[in-house]
């Protein structure tokens, strides 16, 4: 509105409509400033140490708003008595000065408010730390219950404050680090409860004490990291040194190489050689790993050798071109650049394949959690010898998963995913020994219900992290294949002047925090359904099958819509979401055509059911398209439309969960040996056979479980009252 006022055209003839419009804009600015300043003044009254600064900034903002309102009071200009009245037309510089003062003072208010928010988070953290110290020293269960109830309330407050801060962060790297720290705090809060109770029940047990100390130490580290992110500082003024991944190293190296086309002198050959050396040093993480296959190791070594040769050739031509810029030499340089880039691209593809294939195999192999089940059984039996045997197996599993995380970090493709890999590695490193100490405690006290519950909690954390790794692997593959990531242009999102003739008429908006909270449950259901659908598609050996291709595309779109409900991902506005919903519905219609084609090929009692479900799919997709295309005016109507789109998308995903097993069954019956389903994993011989039909645990969302914390606090308060 201020920009509109300053940029208005000085026309000699001014209609009443123009004058009224200018006056309305001026009044609107003044009213908005008034509302803003009222909030600022309320904040000042609650925070005495910043009251003076905040009050001055608020007074300046209010004065600037009133000045703009006076200068735009132009509706009465046609009356003779108003000739001497100073307005925007007679003193445009006055509006510019007032606008500058307004922007300056508003910025001051925002900065001061931000300092207050940071102070609130630090104060909340200090409360949590103080209560943690009390929890560490308690000696009776009754005292523990009282203090833990207080601790739970403080953690809920900290969760709300840091959650709001995470949503406000613009730096994706910081946002990922904050999410990782908050995930640790969520899981550790539950662990702290059972670990402390176990220690109180068995005060002389060394393994119980080690288990509890590990939880407290990890929580303190996570709290410290949150404060580092919020205050943008490091202890002792250290600068953060993030490890360089192969993916980012190759990206930077290619940029430098391709820059030679524009400028032959902007870097030295030594710099380029050093960059390649660093990349090749990192490939040793793969070639030295005991878990890299012989084939991948040989290919990586071969490509590393080829990269050195290509660089020698590039440097040779480059040096010649610096001395003599002939046409032939410049053509040779172009060929050398292309060969160099092609070689490092192949190297990137090879390390990606090595890391992701290892991860897929390990996650499939450990999906039954047989070692954890065996630890629980042998612990309850009090069989110390068997527990020792299975703790060795868990340690081996931990080493495998830690190595997998390190290799995945090299090929993750984006900084947030790199941070997620580092967080996963830390989680496996810490949780493994904690499970072992919890299992040892149970084996020493096999009749202890609390020791058994404690082991369950740590095992659940391990299973949850394994489940999260499957999602992480999918995201890494999506980035590599261009389906998701920093430069992804996917699903024809509307861009000015290209896809939508009426784009200027649209007013795209984002969901505010309150709306995100309302729609969070629906988004979570959608997230879980995408995981279920992905699990079903992974069972198909023929990944090129048309049905699988359509379903995978729909699952990826549904996942983007889930991220939108959290204020994350590439769908930034409600208009992006509606466009995504339209494309999702179109893809569903294409899937229905593929299902009709399948029904024509099969002759089975289940064929009518397939046709019935396909007709349901067509109907649902039509309804979703109608909803997505319907106009919505106003905030309330837009939110209702968002809710309806996500609800209808969830219904389609629920139907896909039923359709996929049915299709696979029909194909298997009617085409024996067609390879619809993947064969069983080859590592089964080594598995512990203590149970059958082990279920994969539900995938959990990596957010701070405020509701679960509140439930814990309620339960503890009830226990205290009893």
Can you describe what's shown?
The structure is a single chain. This protein is an all-alpha fold. It folds into 5 domains: 1-75 and 89-113, Alpha-catenin/vinculin-like (Four Helix Bundle (Hemerythrin (Met), subunit A)); 137-231, Four Helix Bundle (Hemerythrin (Met), subunit A) (Up-down Bundle); 246-358, Nucleotidyltransferases  domain 2 (Four Helix Bundle (Hemerythrin (Met), subunit A)); 367-481, Up-down Bundle (Four Helix Bundle (Hemerythrin (Met), subunit A)); 513-668, Four Helix Bundle (Hemerythrin (Met), subunit A), CATH 1.20.120. It is 75% helix and 0% strand. The protein contains 21 helices and no strands. It has helices spanning 2-6, 16-46, 51-71, 92-137, 141-168, 172-201, 206-231, 246-259, 269-287, 294-323, 327-365, 370-381, 384-410, 415-444, 449-480, 513-538, 546-565, 574-601, 607-629, 635-670, 706-721. Helix 12 (370-381) packs antiparallel against helix 15 (449-480) and helix 14 packs antiparallel against helix 15. The two termini are 60 Å apart. Mean pLDDT is 82; it is low at 78-83, 485-507, 673-707 and 714-722. GO terms for molecular function: actin filament binding. Belongs to the vinculin/alpha-catenin family. One of its GO terms (biological process) is cell adhesion.
């Amino acid at each position: 509105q201020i920009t509109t006022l300053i940029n208005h055209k000085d026309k000699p003839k001014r209609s009443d409509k123009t004058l009224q419009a200018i006056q309305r804009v001026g009044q609107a600015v003044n009213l908005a400033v008034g509302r803003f300043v009222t909030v600022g003044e309320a904040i000042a009254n609650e925070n005495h140490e910043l009251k003076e600064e905040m009050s001055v900034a608020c007074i300046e903002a209010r004065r600037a708003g009133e000045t703009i309102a006076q200068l735009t009071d132009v509706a009465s200009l046609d009356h003779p008595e108003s000739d001497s009245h100073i307005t925007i037309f007679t003193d445009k510089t006055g509006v510019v000065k007032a606008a500058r003062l307004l922007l300056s003072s508003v910025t001051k208010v925002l900065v001061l408010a931000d300092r207050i928010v940071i102070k609130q988070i630090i104060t909340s953290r200090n409360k949590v730390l103080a209560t943690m110290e009390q929890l560490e020293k308690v000696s009776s269960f009754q005292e523990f219950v009282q203090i833990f109830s207080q601790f739970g309330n403080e953690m809920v407050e900290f969760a709300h404050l840091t959650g709001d801060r995470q949503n406000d962060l613009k730096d994706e790297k910081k946002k990922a680090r904050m999410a990782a720290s908050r995930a640790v705090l969520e899981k550790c809060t539950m662990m702290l409860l059972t670990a402390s109770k176990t220690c109180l029940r068995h005060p002389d047990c060394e393994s119980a004490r080690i288990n509890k100390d590990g939880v407290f130490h990890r929580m303190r580290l996570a709290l410290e990291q949150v404060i580092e992110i919020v205050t943008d500082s490091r202890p002792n003024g250290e600068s953060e040194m993030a490890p360089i991944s192969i993916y980012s190293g190759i990206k930077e190296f290619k940029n430098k190489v391709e820059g030679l086309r524009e400028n032959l002198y902007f870097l030295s050959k030594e710099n380029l050689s050093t960059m390649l050396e660093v990349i090749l040093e990192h490939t040793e993480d793969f070639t030295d790993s005991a878990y890299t296959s012989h084939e991948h190791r040989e290919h990586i070594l071969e490509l590393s050798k080829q990269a050195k040769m290509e660089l020698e050739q590039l440097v040779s031509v480059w040096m010649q071109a610096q001395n003599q810029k002939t046409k032939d030499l410049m053509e040779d340089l172009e060929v050398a650049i292309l060969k160099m880039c092609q070689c490092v691209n192949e190297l990137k593809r090879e390390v990606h394949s090595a890391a992701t294939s290892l991860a897929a195999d390990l996650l499939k192999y450990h999906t039954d959690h047989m070692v954890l089940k065996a630890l629980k059984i042998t612990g309850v039996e009090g069989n110390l010898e068997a527990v020792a045997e299975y703790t060795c197996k868990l340690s081996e599993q931990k080493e495998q998963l830690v190595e997998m995380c390190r290799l995945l970090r090299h090929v993750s493709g984006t900084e947030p995913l790199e941070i997620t890999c580092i967080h996963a590695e830390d989680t496996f490193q810490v949780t493994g020994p904690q499970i072992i100490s919890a299992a040892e405690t149970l084996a020493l006290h096999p009749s202890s219900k609390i020791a058994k519950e404690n082991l369950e909690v740590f095992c659940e954390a391990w299973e949850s992290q394994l489940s999260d790794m499957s999602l992480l692997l999918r995201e890494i593959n999506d980035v590599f294949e261009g389906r998701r990531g920093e430069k992804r242009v996917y699903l024809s999102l509307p861009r000015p002047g290209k896809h939508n003739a009426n784009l200027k008429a649209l007013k795209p908006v984002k969901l505010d925090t309150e709306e995100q909270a309302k729609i969070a449950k629906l988004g979570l259901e959608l997230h879980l359904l995408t995981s279920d659908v992905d699990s079903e598609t992974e069972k198909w050996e023929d990944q090129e099958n048309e049905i699988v291709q359509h379903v995978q595309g729909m699952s990826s779109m549904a996942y983007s819509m889930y991220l939108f409900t959290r204020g994350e991902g590439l769908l930034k506005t409600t208009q992006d979401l509606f466009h995504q919903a339209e494309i999702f519905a179109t893809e569903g219609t294409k899937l229905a055509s593929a299902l009709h084609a399948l029904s024509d090929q099969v002759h089975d009692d289940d064929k009518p059911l397939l046709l019935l479900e396909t007709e349901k799919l067509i109907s649902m997709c039509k309804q979703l398209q109608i909803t997505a295309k319907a106009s919505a005016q106003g905030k309330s109507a837009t939110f209702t439309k968002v809710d309806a789109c996500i609800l209808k998308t969830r219904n389609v995903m629920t139907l896909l969960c039923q359709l996929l097993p049915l299709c696979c069954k029909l194909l298997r019956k009617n085409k024996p040996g067609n390879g619809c389903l993947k064969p069983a994993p080859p590592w089964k011989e080594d598995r512990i056979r203590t149970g059958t039909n082990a279920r994969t645990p539900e995938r959990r969302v990596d957010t701070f479980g405020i509701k679960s914390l509140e439930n814990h606090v309620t339960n503890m308060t009830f226990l205290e009252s009893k």
